[in-house]
Records
---
Amino acid sequence: MLFFSFFKSLVGKDVVVELKNDLSICGTLHSVDQYLNMKLIDISVSDPEKIPTYAFSQKLFRDQVDTQLLADSCRKELAEAKAKQ
Amino acid sequence: MAEQPKKEVVLNATIEEPLDLLRLSLEERVHVKMRTDRELRGKLRAFDQHLNMVLSEVEEIVTTRETDEDTFEEIYRQTKRTVPMLFVRGDSVILVSPPVRAS
C-alpha cells in the first residue's frame, strides 16, 4: 500500500517509466492501481528508432484495432465466464 | 507514559526477520544488484515486502558484455548515469547491501 499511495501522490506529475525491454516512456502520470499498473498520458519515447516495436504498436493501436468490437467481445467473454460459474 | 518512546526505540533496533536489515538501512546509502547486469547505489527512502524501493541520488551502473569478433575476447563496458529519484520494482532486485558502517 505504501507505494500505491506514493504513486497516487505523483498523479499529474511528469514521470519516466523504464520497461523491462529497455524502452523508456516519458509522460504524465494519469492513474495507478494497486498492482502499480500505470496509465500515462501525452507520452513520448526518447529513442523511438531503437525499438521498432514501439512505432509498430503505436500504428497498430491507432489504425488497425476495432475498439468497439474488442470491447463488445470482452463483455461477451466476461458474461460467458460468469454464466459458467 | 514517559517510557513509551524509549521502548519503541528498543523495538525498532531489533532484528527479527531479513527485511529488518533494510529497515535499519532506511535513509542510508545502499547498494542494489539488479537483474540484467545493473547495479544501483543510492539513498534508501522506502521499501516493501516485494523489495520495491524508492531510492534517491542514485548512481546506476549498467554493464554490457561484447565479444570481439576476431579474438573472441570479452569486453565489458560500464555506463553510468545518475537519477535524482527512482522507484525500483522489486522483481528485478537480486540483492541489497546495506552501507558499510564504521564501528
Note: The mean pLDDT of chain B is 85.
---
Amino acid sequence: MADKPSDLVQGTLDMLILKTLALEPMHGYGIAVRLEQTSKGVFHLNAGSLFVAFQRLQRAGLIRSEWKATQNSRRAKYYVLTEQGRKRLNSETREWGRQVAAIARILEAS
Amino acid sequence: MPLLRSLSDGLRSLFRKGRVEGELEEELNGFLEMAAEEKIKEGMSRSEALRAVRLERGSLEVTKEVVRSAGWESFMETLWQDLRFATRMLRKSPGFTAVAVLTLALGIGASTIIFSIFHAVLLTPLPYRDSSRMVVIYDREARATGLSKLMDLYQDFEAYRDESRSFDRLAGMTWIAGNPTLTGFGTSKEIHEVQATLGFFSLLGVPPALGRTFAAEDLSRGCTVVLAYPFWKNILGGQKRIIGNTIRLDDQACDVIGVMPDTFTFFPEDTQIWTLICPNNNLERDPRHSGLAIYAHLKAGVSISAATSELVLLHDRANEHDRHATETRPLVLPLHEELTWLAGPNLRLSLIVLFGAVSALLLVGCGNVANLLLTRSLSRHRELAIRSAIGSGMIRLLRQLLTEGLLLSLFAAGLGACLAAAVIHLFNITKPVELPSAAVVRINAPVLLFTASLSVLTTLFFGLVPAWKASKINLVEVLRANSQGTTQGIGKRRMARMLIVAEVMLSLVLLAGAGLLMESAARFASIPFGFAPDRIATMTISLPPKTYSLDLDRVRIYDQIFRGLDALPGVQTTAVSSLLPFRPIQGFDALEVERRQPSTPETAHYDSGVLSISPKYFSALGIPLLKGRSFKADDQLQTEPVAIVNEALAAKYFPADDPVGQHIRTFGAPPERNPWRRIVGVVTNEKRGNPFQEMSWLDTPAMFLPVSQMPPSRVTLLVRSNVDPMGLANIVQRQVSALDPSIPVSNIQTAEHLLLKEHLAYPRFRALVVGSFAGFALLLAVIGLYGVLSQLVTQRTNEIGLRMALGADAGSILTMIAGEGILLVSLGIGLGATLALFLSRFLAGLLYGVKPNDPMTLAGVSLLLLVAALVATLIPARRAMRVDPMVALRFE
C-alpha cells in the first residue's frame, strides 16, 4: 500500500493534481483532502511533496494561482487549470490508460 | 515557454526572496491550519491538533526548505553561498591563494597563448568563400619518392578549366614570372607581381575595396592590374582617383581597375599587384613551357581523390605523346593545408608539439596545486569535520571544496588571459616565425571559451582528488584525535607522493624534448657557412628588359655598376649571383656532356641548376675551390665559354673522370645561347635550403657561369662591408640611378636576416618555447617536492624527536628524509625517461644532428633534474636533522 507519494509512479502525482483541478479551482488543502477522499485513503500526501508539485506545475504553465477567500473567509491560494494543463491532462490520461491496459495484459498472461 | 516561466519564477524567488517566502509561508500556514481545524472538529485540543498535523503533513520549516530547494534557483543560491565562503577562505590564507593562482595562471596563460596560435593557423577557416572546399592543384614528379610539388603547365590549366567537371570554379596564378619595374612614383621600384587568370578573384570571393576585379572584357585590353592595399596606400599615395588611370610597369601602361581591401591576403604574402593573364601574355603564347599554380573549388559531393582521377585523365590527354604525361601526375591538396605548409613545412607538427608541451606544463601546475590543497585540507580537518557533524553530507562538502577550487581557477584564468594577451601582443609585433598570412593570432571568443573550459577542467584535475579525500571524513576519529599525527594523513601523503612522481615524470619529458630541440637549433645554426652572414648586405638590381635586351648591354651596365661599388668607402668585397644565398637551387635543367651519348627528351634528367656569378663570388662567401681555377675578369662574351661546377654535379656526372677540362651544356636550350662550356673548376656545395623540408640543406647539382658570359636581367648584389646595410643601399641606389635612373635597387637585407628568417626562426622559436615550458615545469616540480618534504618533516617532528631521543643520530635522520625525496625523484625520472623515449620519435622531423633517442641529452636532463631535486630535498632534510628532541616532544 502506497502511503507516500514517492511510492507513486513517477509523475502520477502531477496527473492526479491536474485531474482534481479539472473539476474546479481549489486551494492546496482542498486538493489534498480531495485526493485522499477519492482514493479512499490510499494516498496520504504531506505538504512538502504537494507544494513542490504545485511549484513544478506552475512553472510548466499547466496551472496558475490566485489568492481568494475560502468559504470560511480565510485567505488561500487557489490553483486553476490552464488550457495547456487541460491538454496535458487529456494526453496523460490517454497514455495512462494505454499503459495500465498493457500492464494488465502482461500480468494476466502469466 | 515553460522554460521562460521557470526562469522568471526562479529569478523572482532569487531577487524578491522576502515576498516569495512570505507568500509560501502564508499558503503553508493556511494549509496546516485547515488540517488542524479538521482535527479540532474531531475533538482534539488545538495544540494536540497542531502536533498531529506536523507529524502527518510535515512541519512548516521543513516543508518550506523542501519547496525552496526543489527549484533551480536554490542551486544558484548554494553556489553563491559557497562562493562567498570560498572567497573568505582564500582571503584568510593569502600566501596559499597567491601561489596557487600564480601557478595556475602560468599554465592557463601559456596554454591560451599556444591555443590562440593553434586556433588561428589550424582551426580558423581561410577568409575566402566556402574555403573548406578549396584546393590547390600541382604536378608532382611521377618518379619522386618524397614530397614533390611542381607548377602546372598552362596548357594543363586550360584543359582543366575547359573540361573538368569536378570543380565549380578554377583559376590559376603564378608569382614566378614577374618583378616588373614601376616608374613614375619616386625612384624606380621593383614590384612583386602575381599574374592571375580571369577567375582568380571570383574564386576567392573577396570583393575589392575600391573599383572592381578582373572581368571578361579586360582580356582584350593590354594590361590590367588590381592593387594590394598597402602598395596602393604606401607607394601610390592612396588616392582614389588612381582607379581608371594607368601606372607604368616595365615601360608599359597598365590600367588600374581596383584595390583589394587591407585585410585581403593570399600567397605570396608580399604580392603588390595582380595582373590579368591576357591572350598576349607569355603563358598564353607558350602554354607548353610556362607554369602556374591552379586553385579550384570542389563541387559539392566531389572528393579530392575523385577530382584527382579526373585530372589524371585530362592531364594525360592534354600531353599525349609527351614525356610530361609520363613524368608528372596531377596532385590535389586542400588549400588550407597547403597554405599552412607554405608558411612552414613543419608548422603543423610544431604547433602540435607545442600544444603537447604546454599541456604537460599545465598538468605539472595542477599537480602542485593539488598538493597544496591536500596540505591545506589537513589543517582544515576540524572545520570540515564540524561541518559534517552539523549535517553537511559528503556531496555537499565535495561541492563546497570544488567551488573553492573553481574560484582559484577562475582567478587564474583571468590572470592567465591577461598574460596571454600581453604575450600575443608581443608575438604580433616581433613576428618571431612566419605564419600563413591569413592567420591572425588574437584572443577571440573561441580562445576565451577554451580558457574558460580550461579553468573548469583544471579544477577537476587539481581539485577533485583532494576534495574527495577531504570530504570522506571519519567523524569520530577526527574529533577525538588531536590536531597532529593522524592516520588520516597517510592516504593523503601517498597521494602527494604520487603527484610528485607524476610531476617529475612530466618535467623530465618536457626537459628531454627541450634538450633535443635546443641542441638541434644550436647545431643547425653553428654549421660553418664559410662566411659571416651578418656582414654581408644583399640587394637586387633588375634591368628594364627593353633597354637591356642584348647580352652586351647587360654586361656593360653591370660592369659599370660593380666598378663603382668597389671604390666605395667601407666596402670590402662585392660579388654577384643570380640567386640569393641560402635559397634552394631549383634543379630544372638537364645537362649534356660532350663526347657522350647525346641526350634525347626521353633520356634527359632535369636535375641541375644554372647560376650566373661574378669572379669574386666564391671568395666573398668563403666557398672553397676544390680544383681548377675561379672565373677571371677576362672571361668575357667573346672569349671561350667556361663553367664551374659544384661537388654534387661532379659526383653525379663525373663519378670516375676529372670534370676539369670537360665540356658541358644545358639540354634543349637554343644553340646560340648554349655553347659547349669548358669546366675550369670545382667548388664545394653551398648551404642551400630544401624547399620541402625544414632544417636541411639540399645539395642540388649546380653549374656556375660568369655573369660576363651569361648576364641575367636580374642579379643579387652581395656586399661585404663594415657599414650599415640600409645606408649602403642608399649609396648603391644613388650610384645606380646616376648611371640609369630606370634601374631599381630593391630587397635590401643582410644575409644574416635571410638565414634567420628562412632557416633559423622556427628551430629557435620551438627551442625557446619548449625550453621555457620545461624550465617552468622543472621549477614547479622542484617547488612541489620541497613543499611535500617540508610538510612531511612538520608532520613527523614528533616522531623525529622521539627517534633522536632514543639515540638516532643526525645522519640517519637526514638519510631518512632525503632518501624519501630521492626515491620519489628517481621513480619520476625513470618513468619520465621511458615516456620521453616513446614520445621523442614524434619530434624526429624537427631535429637536426641529434637522434630522437639521444642518450646524452636524456642523461643530461636527468642529471639536471636530479641536482635540482637534491637541493629541494636537502633544505627540509637539514631542518629535520636540527629538530631538538626536547622541543619536539613538547610540541603536542
Note: The interface with chain B takes residues 27-29, 32, 44-49, 51-52, 55-56, 58-61, 74-77 of chain A (CB under 8 Å).
